[in-house]
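thoughts on my protein:
***
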Amino acid sequence: MALKNVKSNKFTLKGMTLINPATSFDETNWEQLVPLLTSLRYLESQEDIVDSSGNFNFVNELPTPYSVLGGMALAATIPDGNQFSSILEFILGTAKLSTNEQMLAASADGFRLLAEYLPASVLETRVLQWLPVGTSVVNNVDRLTKLDVPTLVIAGNDDNMLPTKEEANRLGKLLPDCVKMEVSGAGHFVLDARVNLTEVLIDSHIDPLDIQKNSPPYDPVRDWKLPPDDVVRAVIEKRVNPTKKRASPVFFSTDGTTGQRRLGLSLVPTNDRPLLIVGNHQLFGQDLGMIISQLLEDRNIVARGLAHPTVAEGLLRGEQEVRTQRRRYEFGEDVRFEGDLFQMFGAVKVSPRNFFRLLQTNQTSLLFPGGVKEALHGKGDDYKLFWPEKTDFVRIAAKFNATIVPLSAIGAADSADIVADANELLNLPFGIGENLSNFSKSTVSARFDAKDDDETFIPPLAVPKPFPARHYFLFGRSFDTTLLDPNNKDECQRIYRGVKNEVEEGIDALLSARKDDPYALDGVKRSSYQRLFGKDPPTFPLSSLPKSRSSL
């Protein structure tokens, strides 16, 4: 009707927004449930409900069965978990300030609202007459496939009233110019304080103010900004801190002049030049959140990761058949794909161009030269470096006078048992190995100078241990490239070997020093200490960690 009205009046329609649309009504059981609910009105007499003037008369009456059961049905289907918790918290808070009589009166008034604002006869008309006819007309496939208006479908992932998540996918496939936006953790009442609809519409492909039309495309290197403080705190609290609690990480840094170690990150250099942190990739890259959050919290260093194409482009979350919009800073506890969080915190696709531009714009970069081969390593390759021989990252760092900080990390490989690595999985019978091989070959390589099938992208089959090993991070002696000529291959090679040796020596030093930490591999003992004292247990003494032997 709206579209016909627009055409008849020759208006220009910029776009259309559907919020938890009822087009999925025919996939629900409401046509069977509503008659049962509305039939409860026959348990009350008309005289009890309406006075002689036709007004509702609830002053001295208890709520009707229709109001009570209908209210319970709405309470079970409309609010999501967060909203229900807020409502319950409000009710409990009110109960403390009210007498029993006041609470009963307030509850009765609340239950009466349904019969007052949505009488049974009105509900019956809407559900049994309007919605079936309306959805049958709107859901005409020929009509939908010809609707070329830019459309945004906003869907609450936890809608209990309608199958909204599935409907958003259906409409996204049928409508020619449709984008969906799923709101994590939201129910049928999706437009609460968590969703800024104005911001969503401005960011959408509808572009109501023509901002995108008149602006250059978004540049993930130059235009990215750290999320607001409340989002940063929420991500750290919900995603990083539980991992930290289990892994009890310990961070060390190194004096750039003397090579002495210090607990904490106070010796990680910061200046007016770009910073390049180069380290070993741990198993599955599960320590990235701890590294990034610790740098941010302790030193306000915003380290931007260089992510493998499968992470940056979302291959691991499955094939995207429907165009998807995300809110600027969306975080929910049900977000499963960690790549979304990495990108929210500044990760970009690893490529020579992105790496070059990060340093060019004076930003801090986090690089793991070993890439997939280290993150998905096989049996017996714990903490082994698989770095290429090329010195590209040193040469680019020298071009922009960047400071290179080696990073050594251990703990992840001791937190899981590898049952079968890539080589063993490739040899599996019944076509399993062949399918894995085809998948790996079709995966885009992270190295620009390598073919896709040169990189084996097959995660090992690993079983996590009940308690992870303690994680240790050592930021080694830094390398200043101010006086380094990027065209001097010999000098770049020397610095490259120095950085690699510093990482290897740091790994060996941590493995040796943790022998003096009684909580290193004993997760039960570590957990007991945390519960008893409310903090992480102490670690090995600094004397167990030798100073850096790298020569600058």
Remarks:
- DSSP finds 21 helices and 14 strands in the chain.
